[in-house]
Design goal:
The chain has one domain (3-221): Rossmann fold. The chain contains seven helices and twelve strands. It has helices spanning 38-53, 70-79, 97-111, 130-138, 191-197, 218-221, 247-257, and strands at 3-8, 11-13, 34-36, 57-64, 83-87, 115-119, 142-146, 148-152, 155-161, 166-172, 175-179, 202-205. β9 and β10 (166-172) form a beta hairpin. α2 packs across α5 (191-197).
Length: 261
């Protein structure tokens, strides 16, 4: 039986662009270029390596987002994934992490899965909570923040590296995992892969097909919202401390005045 791998990816604003909020205090995704989240490229890479070691495996990349999010799917397909699913619906605008996990879980169940692979976080929100939420909604075990992964005998195993020690984790399939940026350099799509990606199937689903009510997602259904946002203040000229024997005291007074100490 084929190993069914689903990789969750996200289309995010380019970090080198002029990122800002829209009028409704959601991230403006229209006026800035977007791309596949760099941390999700590691998830795609690990899925490809797992598939290479399996007797038979199929990789589906899944994203939730606007029309342009198909660009993230095409990048993953050009790396070597087999097919893609794009969940797009106007009512999804403003959906937070909880709502996104609801939609992704419904799509994963509809697609069928043995292993769900995620990046450690997205490069726009940087929350890193989605894999745990998915595992809870799907009712399967999770093994997160792995820097090394393998699948064999109906189990996924991996190594999680901490500051003081490394842990060896194991979970029975089906399961959800997330991988870090230390798990292995993501491959560059070849010209052949880019051309092949154009012919690979991309399905589009909406909330109705996933049997999700509109009021459970979007800004109205969000549990977290941005109440206020302001531009980062411009950098000001620094203070030069000329040390003539009193430099340490001047520095301590400066830090105390600003309540750093």
């Amino acid at each position: 039986m084929s190993l069914r791998i689903v990789v969750c990816v996200k289309y995010v604003p380019d970090a080198t662009g002029d990122r800002h909020f829209a009028e409704d205090l959601t991230v403006d995704r229209d006026d800035v270029d977007g791309l596949l989240s760099e941390l999700d490229e590691y998830a795609v890479e690990q899925a490809l390596q797992i598939a290479d070691e399996a007797d038979d495996a199929e990789i589906t990349v899944l994203t939730v987002g606007p029309e342009d999010a198909k660009d993230a799917l095409r990048k993953a397909l050009s790396m070597g994934a087999d097919k893609a699913i794009h969940v797009e619906d106007d009512d999804l605008h403003g959906t937070d992490a909880l709502g996104t996990s609801l939609v992704l879980a419904a799509a994963i169940e509809k697609a069928g899965f043995d292993l769900v692979v995620c990046g450690m976080a997205s490069t726009d929100g940087s929350m890193g909570v989605l894999p745990a939420m998915l595992a809870e909604r799907l009712g399967v075990p999770q093994a997160t923040l792995l820097s090394e992964v393998s699948v064999a005998d109906g189990k996924v195993t991996g190594r999680r590296d901490g500051d003081a020690a490394s842990e060896q984790l194991e979970a029975a399939l089906p399961a959800v995992i997330s991988v870090t940026d230390q798990s292995g350099e993501a491959r560059y799509p070849s010209f052949k892969g880019i051309m092949a990606a154009k012919k690979k199937p991309v399905e589009s689903w909406d909330l109705e097909e996933l049997e999700i009510e509109a009021d459970a997602v979007g800004l109205e259904g969000a549990w977290t919202k941005v109440d206020e946002a302001a531009e980062r203040p411009a950098r000001t000229k620094g203070t030069i401390v000329e040390d003539e024997g009193e430099g340490g005291k001047q520095l301590a007074a400066f830090l105390a005045e600003r309540k750093f100490i």
